[in-house]
Specification:
Among the domains are: about 140 residues, Rossmann fold (3-Layer(aba) Sandwich); about 100 residues, no CATH class. With about 400 residues, the chain is of the alpha+beta class. About 30% of the residues lie in helices and about 25% in strands. The two termini are about 15 Å apart. The strands form 6 sheets. Strands 8-7-18-19-20-17-21 form a 7-stranded mixed β-sheet. A 5-stranded parallel β-sheet has the order 12-2-1-16-22, covered by helices on one side. Strands 5-11-6 form a 3-stranded antiparallel β-sheet. Bound molecules: uridine-5'-diphosphate (UDP).
Length: about 400
């Protein structure tokens, strides 16, 4: 085998690692099952002249200078601050729920009182995860917390995950904490930027290196086989002694030996709309599924440096349980963290750890909810630590 490393998957985990190893003098083969690179960050220009994020909205935000410095070698950026409104009792109010949301939903006197109570309890600019806010013993704050839970988190989370907010890992709802602030941006990170020519172009440049060979439309499982008893990797029937970096579904690598791990999937209803058809880039629908069966609608045109004036492309998101064989919901997006699934993942990880030159990396392989920036950082850190 002529390659020093085989990387399965051409998303952030795979592409960042491929580039780092190539620059370290290693020859790298990247196998990607889909017919395109970029993983779920893949985007393309569509018939409306809109850069469509094919697998849902991807907004780059980070405090990591390291991640920005690395990726900036492959793209220019434009500043972009994401804003989201949530549909609550027929109104659209800022999400994360903040002081402006209170002003919009409550009568002036009551709103003023609630804001002061929150500021007194936590201080301005504080971010409080909803499950923590619900534990506050002050009856007025508790009542507000229950209102926010009911109108922002309860049904959205049920729709998104198929579990209640109490059943899944608290870190999931803590991604969108109640924000005691008038700052209505979705993120507060130092860098809030979008790649000037899109994510696909960024990945093309990142993978364009003489030491990297990329093969798309190749299912690695047709070539790679792991034997945990013999502690060996086989590639096309021969022992592969280089590093195999696996960024795909971890359970598939062992033939689902410990059962299929639960992942959540999405389907997108993509439509052409008049530009400005909704009041924000993304509108969330934290309502029961009987009222709105979807979670959010995003306008991809509004994410562009120069949004289109006439028509735009929007996508409405419908969550599904992942099933690779189903007609709908056959793309894995998110690991579904419950106590059971975490234990199930550990069995896979422990078994695969027996093979010293096999490395699990990324959302699907590590069963972690990485953002684009944290995945970039993790891949860089992983490569630096790889023993040669
Ligand atoms: N969430 C919610 N209501 C909202 C927004 C988010 O309940 O209006 C919860 C929900 O459980 C969701 C999680 O917070 O899955 C994380 O939201 P985020 O926007 O970070 O999800 P992503 O963009 O990664 O799909």
């Amino acid at each position: 085998m002529a390659y020093d490393a085989i990387i399965v998957g051409a998303g952030y985990a795979g592409a960042v690692s491929a580039r780092w190893l190539a620059e370290d003098g290693k020859t790298v083969l990247v196998l990607e099952k889909r017919n395109h690179i970029g993983g779920n960050a893949y985007d393309r220009m569509d018939e409306n002249g809109v850069r469509r994020h094919v697998y849902g909205p991807h907004l780059f935000h980070t405090n990591s200078k390291q991640a920005v410095d690395f990726l900036s070698r492959f793209t220019d950026w434009y500043p972009f601050e994401h804003r989201v409104l949530g549909w609550i009792e027929g109104q659209t109010v800022p999400v994360p729920f903040n002081l402006t949301s209170i002003e919009k939903l409550f009568a002036p006197e009551k709103a003023e009182h609630l804001k002061q109570e929150l500021i007194k309890a936590y201080g301005m600019e504080c971010k409080v995860p909803i499950l923590e806010l619900r534990k506050n013993e002050d009856p007025e704050i508790k009542e507000l917390a229950e209102y926010i839970f009911e109108h922002v988190f309860k049904y959205y989370t049920m729709k998104q995950w198929g579990y209640t907010a109490e059943e899944i890992d608290p870190a999931v709802t803590a991604r969108v904490p109640v924000h005691i602030s008038y700052d209505d941006r979705y993120f507060q990170d130092t860098y809030q930027i979008m790649p000037a020519e899109g994510y696909t172009a960024l990945f093309e440049k990142m993978l364009a290196h003489e030491n990297i060979t990329v093969r798309t439309g190749v299912d690695a499982l047709d070539h790679v086989c792991v034997d945990t008893e013999a502690k060996k990797i086989l590639f096309d029937g021969e022992v592969f002694a280089g590093d195999l970096i696996w960024t795909g579904l971890v359970d598939s690598l062992l033939g689902y030996r410990f059962g299929a791990l639960p992942y959540r999937s999405l389907e997108f209803d993509v439509r052409t709309e008049k530009a400005g058809f909704q009041p924000a880039v993304t509108v969330n629908y934290p309502t029961p599924a009987e009222i709105h069966p979807y979670t959010r609608i995003s306008d991809y045109g509004m994410m562009m440096q120069t949004p289109p004036a006439g028509y735009t492309t929007a996508a409405c998101e419908y969550p599904y349980a992942y099933d690779g064989n189903a007609e709908k919901g056959n793309v894995p997006y998110y690991p579904v963290f419950t106590e059971d699934s975490k234990a199930q993942y550990s069995r896979y990880a422990r078994e695969l750890a027996k093979i010293p030159n096999l490395h699990l990396l990324g959302r699907l392989a590590e069963y972690r909810y990485y953002n684009m920036d944290s995945m970039t950082e993790r891949a860089l850190e992983f490569c630096r630590g790889l023993k040669h």
